[in-house]
Specification:
heterodimer; A: mainly alpha; 10 helices; B: about 675 residues; mainly alpha; two-stranded antiparallel ribbon; about 5% strand
Chain lengths: ~325, ~675
């Protein structure tokens, strides 16, 4: 019973906190620019407002366009269920592992790219084309870097990887772990559409990647897609936090341990928000065709992480 | 035992029904004024029936019901012709039955020309030959069926005799297939001569009496011969040429099943008969598998011809099958039989999963090509609103081919990943070195395949029509639409039910690994897909399906409470104030340009700009732009071979100049040489 409560609680926490993280980055950036900025819960307000607005669909769109927002949201939230947030207790984790997580992300990518092509406009195709090319390089890098950990844990189950890394306190200092972490961070930056790969606050359609695919959606469909994107961002950050540096994660389900885990998790998220805000304030976005080099580097780092593992463990 | 006699009946009725379906249209065409029913509908119904019998036979053999044997001895070869549906044939029979049943059901009979009847007859014959190759347990019968399969499908590839492209494709197909078949025949006949019989059981005994070097030589002959059919790089060049040229139901069987017959050949003749694969086999297949998967995925991404894109995707999946087989062999060499069993079951599951998905994709895309009259994605578009039934089927098939969870290709890829990780952790020999690269290659190929599938569906079916022909396309007849829908539903069903299906492949694995306790595979736990209890990893497509449905339902309820009940308003797409034109959409070529640029060093795309008519120095009046991605493997490997053959034949021609005196002197010279030699 308490296990069921934990699964539901973790998922609800992840899903509800998700829009706040983007708000937090915006607040940090505003402060760095000496501005007041919008409050942290601004993204939540946006979502609620969008949900009650009229939905307009292109005349050229097929019935698929009406299904995609729901499917994308459902797939993104399903990943939340498998993500270890507070505890390494397996919960429903048996139903989905690392490969399933990556595959569900891939499903979301396919569906959104198809949605972008529905309206028959230039910008949708442009963004979808770029997004697919970038993630064709990012996805293998992500798979490889998490595999480095999965091999150590002897399982592809996310909670077991987390528990294994947590149980070996000095393991995270090994070269392969650090290389894998670096690779993962680069990919996560690309996947959540942040500088230096994409600029989330751009207003120029020509430079858009993630936002460009949603240009032709509106109203409740946009609300669903935005919420799903927030949830995916938080899942990726939680994976970095709890797989690569699972300090503080609860290995037993006592209230004290869970409280500590919650504090540690939130602290790590705030840290990530700070890093992203500083990065965005001091660097510019890369030219589009420099990004493959960036992601190629992530891929090589991840491959290097695996080979280092081979050499060091013999 | 009621079921015991059933398999013999099923064997006989499959052959009978398919043979009747092949012969009826031919016989009916000899008699004037035969009703169309007898020429088309009855043969088609028979063919569907025969295919379903084959599927049932496969399912029975998988379930372990004793495999029946049929014998026929016309008194001519040393031993009677025998056919058996054993456990190793079973997965392939199941696949053949399901795919060809839907392919026949999707045969469009509304066109009552002789061409339709001929295609139906040829396809039935082709299916029968394929069935024969899978169940034959007699070397000569196998070679006959194998050859019949190649010849009949080549006729179907060249069915559009007016097209030079189709004739060229059929020629390349025949040339490579016969080169492969020659190697297989050489090995098989050598072995039969040494065994003194043609039965597979006596061949296995003969194998046991050869020296290891001789065993390896024969196994490699089989391997190269069957790798042609499987489409392993660099023997794949015929596949993307021939598969798209055939009519859609044939393409479905070619890509869905015939490619897997290559895998069957590999496993049967290079593994099951000798008892174990030759040394180095695993390493070579693993590396070839990675190369094949990457080549197929990369070329699929940059391809703009709808059917050819699907054919390249078949190359990618053939690469995965090769990779899994190589992995299994490597693990056998390392003595990890339980992991080898896992890799083999991954290969079987992926063969079935890809076969179902690819055949559905070929049927649906073939229907779209038929309705719009064009094969190039550049002239399609907007079909989803014009042919909703076909588009739904195409969507399901394309999602399955992209390897998404809940669909059939996911289970195989998941098991391959698991085996790679486990094999790597177990430190199994060369695998320690190769597994990271195999994993990286697999991940890269999957991500590229995703882009290819989005391109196929997004450009062809979504957006606005890019040509008049696409704008006036109509959906298929209800009968064909229903068949397409069933074909596209199978990958989804298999995807959700993957754990139960995975448990069925213990018997074929046990044929290849007799010492392995296959019980561990079949004892998979209920609705969880697990790597046979070897690692604490699991996924449950069924639970994921439930969760997805749950969240979609919750989102729906949330929006309903938020005024979401309001109707969606339709409006024209916004084109920044300009008039929206279909040419404003991304083209198929442009859609994957970023990928083409990233992989430029590998793909080496060519483009050429020619000024036809000069205007002022800066504005030419007329330009011609040509671009394309040439197939480098074909140029590097095959062009020299073709040139060498042509050069040799040109030289040999000089011997034959038509003069009788010269020919007589050749005879004399030969006679003298022979006498000297025999002295």
């Amino acid at each position: 019973m308490s296990e069921a409560l934990l699964v539901v609680g973790q998922t609800v926490l992840l899903v509800l906190l998700a829009p706040l993280w983007a708000g937090l980055v915006a607040v940090f950036k505003a402060r760095l620019q000496m501005r007041q900025g919008a409050p942290v819960w601004q993204r939540w307000r946006d979502l609620v407002k969008l949900a009650s607005k009229e939905t307009v669909l292109s005349e050229d769109a097929s019935p698929l366009a009406r299904v995609v927002p729901y499917a994308v949201l459902a797939a993104s939230f399903t990943v939340c269920v498998f993500t270890p947030v507070l505890s390494t207790n397996d919960g429903l984790g048996f139903a989905g592992d690392l490969v399933m997580t990556v595959a569900l992300f891939a499903a979301v990518r396919v569906l959104i790219a198809l949605l972008a092509l529905e309206a028959g406009t230039t910008f949708g195709g442009m963004a979808a084309s770029r997004h697919l090319a970038l993630s064709a390089l990012g996805e293998p890098a992500m798979v490889m870097s998490v595999f480095t950990l999965a091999i150590g844990a002897g399982s592809t189950q996310l909670s077991r990887i987390s528990a294994a890394v947590a149980a070996a306190p000095n393991e995270w200092l090994s070269p392969s772990h650090l290389l894998a972490l670096t690779a993962m961070w680069l990919v996560v930056l690309a996947e959540i559409g942040r500088v230096p790969v994409d600029n989330p606050v751009t207003h120029l359609e020509l430079t858009m990647v993630h936002e460009g695919m949603l240009l032709d959606t509106s109203g409740r469909h946009l609300a669903l897609l935005e919420w799903a994107a927030h949830a995916r961002t938080l899942v990726l950050l939680t994976l970095v936090a709890n797989l690569f540096m699972p300090w503080g994660i609860a290995t037993t389900d006592t209230p004290a341990a869970l409280g500590l885990a919650l504090a540690a998790w939130l602290a790590k998220l705030v840290l990530f928000a700070g890093i992203v805000a500083v990065t965005e304030s001091v660097t510019a976005r890369m030219r589009l065709f420099r990004v493959p080099e960036f992601l190629g580097m992530a891929f090589l780092l991840a491959l290097l992480a695996l080979s280092t593992d081979t050499m060091l463990r013999g | 035992m009621l079921l015991a006699g059933l398999d013999g009946v099923l064997l006989a009725s499959t052959i009978g029904a398919l043979a009747a379906a092949a012969l009826l249209p031919l016989l009916a065409s000899l008699v004037p004024r035969v009703p169309g029913v007898l020429r088309l509908s009855v043969p088609r119904a028979l063919a569907v029936l025969g295919s379903l019998c084959a599927a049932a036979l496969g399912a029975l053999a998988l379930a372990g019901v004793a495999s029946g044997t049929l014998e026929w001895w016309p008194g001519f070869p040393a031993q009677p012709f025998t056919i058996t549906a054993d456990a190793l044939s079973a997965p392939f029979l199941l696949l053949l039955g399901l795919v060809s049943a839907t392919a026949f059901a999707a045969f469009d009979l509304s066109d009552r020309s002789t061409g339709t009847a001929a295609r139906l007859a040829l396809q039935a014959g082709f299916t029968l030959a394929l069935f024969g190759a899978l169940v034959a347990s007699h070397a000569l019968l196998f070679l006959l069926a194998w050859e019949g399969m190649t010849l009949l499908s080549a006729l179907l590839v060249a069915h559009d005799a007016g097209s030079a492209r189709a004739r060229g494709a059929a020629f390349t197909y025949l040339a490579l297939s016969h080169a492969g078949a020659a190697l297989v025949a050489l090995a098989l006949l050598t072995l039969s001569a040494r065994a003194g019989g043609f039965q597979f059981s006596s061949l296995a005994v003969a194998f046991a009496h050869q020296t290891p070097a001789e065993v390896a030589r024969l196994s490699w002959l089989f391997t190269i011969g069957f790798a042609v059919k499987l489409g392993v790089v660099p023997l794949h060049v015929w596949l993307p040429l021939a598969h798209p040229e055939a009519p859609a139901p044939t393409s479905a069987v070619l890509s869905g099943v015939m490619v897997k017959a290559g895998l069957y050949g590999l496993l049967r003749f290079a593994w099951a008969l000798p008892g174990a694969p030759p040394p180095e086999w695993g390493t070579v297949l693993l590396l070839a598998g990675i190369a094949t998967a990457l080549t197929g995925a990369l070329y699929a991404t940059v391809e703009s011809d709808a059917k050819k894109l699907l054919a390249w995707s078949t190359v990618k999946h053939a690469g995965l099958l090769t990779l899994a087989t190589g992995l299994a062999a490597l693990l056998v060499t390392a003595g990890r039989l339980e992991l080898a069993g896992l890799a083999l079951s991954a290969a079987f599951i992926h063969a079935l999963g890809h076969g179902l998905a690819k055949s559905a994709a070929f049927l649906a895309v073939g229907e779209a090509v038929h309705a719009s009259g064009v094969r190039s994605l550049e002239q399609m578009g907007g079909l989803a609103r014009r042919m909703p039934g076909t588009s739904l089927a195409a969507l399901l098939a394309v999602l399955a081919l992209a390897g998404l969870p809940l669909f059939s290709c996911f289970a195989g890829e998941w098991l391959i990943y698991q085996t790679l990780i486990l094999g790597y952790s177990a430190g199994a020999g060369e695998l320690r070195l190769l597994a990271p690269f195999a994993g990286a290659g697999l991940a890269l190929a999957s991500a590229l395949a995703l882009a290819a599938m989005v391109k196929l569906y997004g450009i062809a079916f979504l957006g606005r029509p890019r040509s008049e022909a696409a704008a006036h396309a109509h959906d298929a007849t209800p009968a064909v639409s229903n068949a397409l829908f069933v074909a596209a539903l199978l990958p989804l069903l298999m995807g959700v039910g993957a754990p139960w299906i995975a448990a069925c492949f213990a018997r074929p694995v046990a044929v290849l690994l007799p010492e392995f306790d296959a019980g561990t595979l079949s004892a998979a736990s209920g609705f969880l897909l697990v790597p046979a209890g070897l690692a604490p990893s699991s996924v449950s497509p069924f639970a994921v399906a439930v969760l997805v449905a749950l969240f979609a339902g919750l989102a729906f309820l949330w929006l309903r409470g938020h005024g979401g009940a309001r109707e969606v308003r339709r409006a024209p797409s916004w084109a920044c104030g300009a008039k929206l034109d279909a040419r404003m959409q991304y083209s198929a070529l442009g859609f994957t340009k970023p990928i083409r640029l990233v992989f430029k060093p590998v793909l080496t795309p060519e483009s050429e700009l020619e000024v036809l008519e000069e205007g002022s120095p800066y504005f030419a009046r007329k330009l011609r732009h040509r671009s394309g991605v040439p197939e480098r493997i074909e140029q590097l490997v095959y062009t020299p071979v073709v040139q060498a053959v042509l050069w040799t034949s040109a030289r040999a021609r000089q011997l034959q100049d038509g003069s009788l005196h010269l020919y007589l002197s050749y005879l004399l010279a030969t006679l003298v040489a022979l006498l000297l030699w025999a002295r």
